[in-house]
């Protein structure tokens, strides 16, 4: 939300220095992304006077002018000298005061003014129109200033166009702050100042111009799609450039002036937070002397050409405004249609002020990749109670800025009015929860500043009855009011104290200690902790290639803020892959992330979902960027496997083995580069390369290795200490064994058979070589060389004992693997 400081000043008293207000915003929970100066992009533009105007010698429409710019252009003796400017405008005469951009000037859009020649005549500047100065849309000629305007002044300073814009990051739960009125109320509560908002009112609403109810009929097919729809008609609008003050405020809010009708609707939206839409009444079909507006769900395959001149295919989960139920004339809450837009021939306007379902608007906006200022506000919930008031404000501005005549009354379809919530607030409870001596009077006063109606009790301790404003959907419970009181009082002013406890020595539980150890081990292994959304896209498992079997039923969010976060996540990997994609898109090629969090498995027969915890990690690129003297290899399966091994070793989990993952069961993992992690016969999770097709669905084109382990299993199998084993004091005997086996025999299978056949004397098995050669070893076979260590705990082995044990091992292993000893 772009907050114009000059505009805000007209609504509430604010500090002289905008930085003081910025600090208050941050203190009370509103993040500020940037502070910028409006008009800073316009330099070396001055007021001037035409002292000479002669026709261009080689043009029938241009003039060679001498422009008095005062002391902005002087001769070598310091005396003012007029500047020669070639100008093609037709709306000025000698003696007129205007605006000139001198050589070296900068105009909006980073336009640089340079010395030039126009048909052979040198020009040392440019006389400017108001559109070239970014003030409005008028480019019919250069700006003509009042006759008493001094010359040679900096135009931006003289015009008072300099402004400070504070760009605030508004959280989804605060739709009230997506308007200047809302920000004024917020600032009023922050600073404990009165607001003084002077909203325009209709001067002449008359049945002589017609009655809106006689001209328009409105029908809402489904109140779930549209909670309220108001329509008002204004006649005889005169399309043209907006007044300077209106254009300036629209620009400060981040929009571009178009014409007075469109600018009024944009201005009112920025002022109140209520998006409006203006239809050309003459372009709507007439039946029985009326235009019939029908709000309904779109039909699959239905098409609408929006104002950006793009034809869009609609689906049944979108909402449309239709002309008599037939052709759509607008995509509700997102953008109007080209078939009913305002143009220079428009005479009569149908003004819409309505409230549409946030979920439908969100899905339509994202599915069509069509985000607008209106959709942003509808997604976060617009206050239906204000629709009629906002329509009146807009009609008053049509009178003022467009010369319009306002028809009597409005059509107002409001099938299910929203009641403001009534909440009991206990002052003593507030003080207990906040741990701060907040006065009851402070609570009541600041809540009233926020727009609440407060009925105080008999004394400081009695409960207050609070009616929350309808534009604050986040205020529904007592704890919501407690949060508002605390943030305005100042969380930083709460004195830190230890929680009260009796006969209890503080400390972490064993589970907490082990959870922290998991994080420490992963961080020491080179991963960075992250936190992704618990909300998920319903397509996540499908995009990943993961079966829904064993994942329960999805836990749906009743009122999702955005369409692609409409259910709770059932796996953590999709969120981590989106983090990888985000980093890659922003130039970070080496990504090493882990997260410890919950997933949610719903059940048709249970009211509450299961919420198991998992630890998951993703890795791509290399460990470090290449240096001039060192190249780092790309990460692979064994890097992730090593991290998992580090973690299990740190938790003292024994009898760990890695089993080749079945491609049919792990469809999101690359076959041959994935393994199940098993400990003490229990499946802990998996580790492996994400399948390239899955990566493509998340817009990732580099290999990614990942792992996911059950936290519950890790905590259950973890031990505080391992059984003590003496350091071997007796010598061992090492023998190398090279076995030729089929390619289908894995390292794990061969190792298990060796250990099983080795008995008590075999103390260690290490693989040190794998060799393939179709001639020397055989096609479809491989040679695996192991180093075997034999040792007895109570005596030194004799050669006879070792030979006997080794020969027995070789015989058993050859039989169980179908292999042979390589000579």
TrEMBL record:
Domain called B5: residue spans: 418-496
Textual note on the cofactor: Binds 2 magnesium ions per tetramer.
Cell location: Cytoplasm
Name of one Pfam family that matches: tRNA_bind
Entry keywords, A to Z: Aminoacyl-tRNA synthetase, ATP-binding, Cytoplasm, Ligase, Magnesium, Metal-binding, Nucleotide-binding, Protein biosynthesis, RNA-binding, tRNA-binding
Cofactor(s) required for function per UniProt: Mg(2+)
Record-annotated membrane-spanning stretches: none
Binding, Mg(2+): 474, 480, 483-484
Residues covered by the FDX-ACB domain: 728-822
Domain TRNA-binding: 39-156
Domain of life: Bacteria
Family: Belongs to the phenylalanyl-tRNA synthetase beta subunit family. Type 1 subfamily.
Protein name per Swiss-Prot or TrEMBL: Phenylalanine--tRNA ligase beta subunit
Organism: Parafannyhessea umbonata
Gene name tied to this protein: pheT
């Amino acid at each position: 939300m772009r907050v114009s400081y000059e505009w805000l000043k007209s609504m509430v008293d604010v500090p002289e220095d905008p930085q003081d207000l910025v600090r208050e915003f941050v203190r009370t929970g509103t993040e500020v992304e940037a502070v910028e100066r409006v008009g800073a992009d316009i330099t070396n533009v001055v007021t001037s006077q035409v002292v000479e105007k002669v026709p261009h010698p080689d043009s029938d429409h241009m003039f060679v002018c001498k422009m008095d710019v005062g002391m902005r252009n002087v001769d070598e003796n310091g005396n003012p000298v007029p500047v020669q400017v070639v100008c093609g405008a037709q709306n000025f005469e000698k003696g007129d005061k205007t605006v000139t951009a001198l050589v070296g000037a900068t105009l909006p859009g980073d336009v640089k003014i340079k010395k030039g020649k126009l048909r052979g005549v040198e020009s040392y500047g440019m006389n400017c129109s108001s559109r070239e100065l970014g003030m409005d849309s008028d480019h019919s000629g250069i700006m003509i200033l009042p006759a008493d305007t001094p010359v040679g002044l900096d135009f931006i300073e003289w015009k008072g166009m300099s402004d400070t814009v504070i760009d605030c990051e508004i959280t989804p739960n605060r739709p009230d702050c997506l308007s200047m009125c809302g920000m004024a109320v917020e600032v009023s509560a922050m600073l404990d100042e009165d607001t003084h908002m002077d909203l325009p009112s209709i001067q002449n609403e008359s049945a002589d111009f017609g009655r809106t109810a006689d001209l328009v009929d409105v029908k809402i097919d489904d109140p779930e799609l549209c909670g309220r729809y108001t329509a008002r008609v204004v006649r005889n609008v005169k399309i043209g450039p907006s007044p300077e003050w209106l254009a300036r405020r629209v620009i400060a809010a981040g929009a571009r002036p178009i014409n007075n009708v469109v600018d009024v609707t944009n201005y009112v939206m920025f002022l109140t937070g209520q998006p409006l839409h203006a239809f050309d009444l003459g372009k709507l079909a007439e039946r029985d002397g009326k235009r019939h507006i029908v709000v309904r769900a779109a039909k699959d395959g239905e098409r609408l050409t929006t104002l950006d001149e793009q034809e869009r295919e609609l689906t049944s989960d979108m909402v449309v405004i239709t002309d008599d139920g037939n052709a759509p004339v607008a995509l509700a809450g997102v953008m109007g249609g080209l078939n009913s837009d305002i143009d220079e021939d428009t005479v009569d306007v149908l003004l819409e002020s309505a409230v549409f379902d946030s979920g439908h608007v969100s899905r339509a906006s994202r599915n069509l990749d069509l985000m607008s200022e209106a959709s942003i506000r509808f997604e976060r919930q617009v206050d239906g109670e204000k629709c009629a008031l906002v329509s009146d404000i807009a009609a008053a501005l049509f009178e003022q800025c467009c010369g319009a005549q306002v028809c009597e009354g409005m059509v107002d379809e409001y099938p299910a009015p929203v009641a403001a919530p009534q909440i009991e607030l206990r002052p003593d409870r507030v003080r207990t929860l906040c741990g701060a001596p907040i006065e009851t009077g402070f609570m009541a006063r600041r809540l009233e500043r926020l727009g609440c109606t407060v009925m105080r009790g008999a004394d400081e301790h009695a409960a207050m009855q609070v009616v929350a404003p309808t534009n604050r959907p986040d205020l529904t419970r007592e704890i919501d009011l407690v949060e508002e009181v605390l943030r305005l009082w100042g969380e930083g002013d709460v004195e830190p104290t230890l929680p009260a406890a009796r006969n209890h020595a503080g400390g972490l539980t064993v589970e907490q200690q082990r959870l922290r150890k998991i994080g420490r081990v992963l961080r020491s292994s080179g991963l960075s902790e992250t936190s992704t959304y618990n909300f998920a896209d319903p397509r996540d498992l499908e995009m990943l290639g993961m079966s829904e079997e064993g994942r329960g039923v999805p836990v749906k969010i009743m009122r999702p803020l955005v369409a692609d976060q409409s259910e709770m996540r059932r796996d953590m990997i999709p969120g981590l892959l989106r983090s990888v994609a985000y980093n890659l898109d922003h130039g970070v090629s080496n990504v090493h992330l882990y997260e410890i969090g919950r997933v949610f498995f719903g059940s048709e027969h249970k009211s509450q979902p299961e919420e198991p915890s998992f630890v998951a990690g993703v890795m791509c690129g290399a460990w470090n960027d290449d240096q001039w003297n060192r190249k780092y290899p790309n990460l692979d399966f064994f890097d992730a496997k090593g991290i998992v091994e580090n973690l299990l070793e740190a938790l003292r989990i024994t009898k760990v083995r890695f089993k080749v993952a079945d491609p049919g069961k792990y469809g999101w993992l690359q076959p041959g580069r994935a393994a199940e992690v098993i400990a003490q016969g229990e499946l802990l999770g998996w580790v492996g390369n994400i399948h390239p097709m899955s990566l493509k669905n998340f817009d990732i084109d580099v290999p990614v290795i990942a792992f996911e382990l059950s936290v519950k299993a890790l905590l259950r199998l973890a031990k505080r200490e391992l059984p003590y084993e003496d350091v071997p004091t007796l010598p061992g005997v090492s023998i190398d064994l090279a076995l030729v086996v089929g390619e289908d025999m894995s390292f794990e299978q061969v190792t298990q058979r060796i250990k099983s056949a080795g008995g008590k004397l075999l103390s260690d098995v290490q693989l040190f070589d794998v060799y393939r050669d179709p001639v020397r070893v055989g096609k479809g076979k491989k040679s695996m060389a192991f180093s075997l260590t034999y040792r007895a705990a109570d005596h030194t082995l004799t050669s006879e004992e070792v030979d006997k044990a080794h020969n027995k091992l070789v015989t058993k292993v050859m039989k169980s693997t179908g292999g042979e000893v390589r000579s």
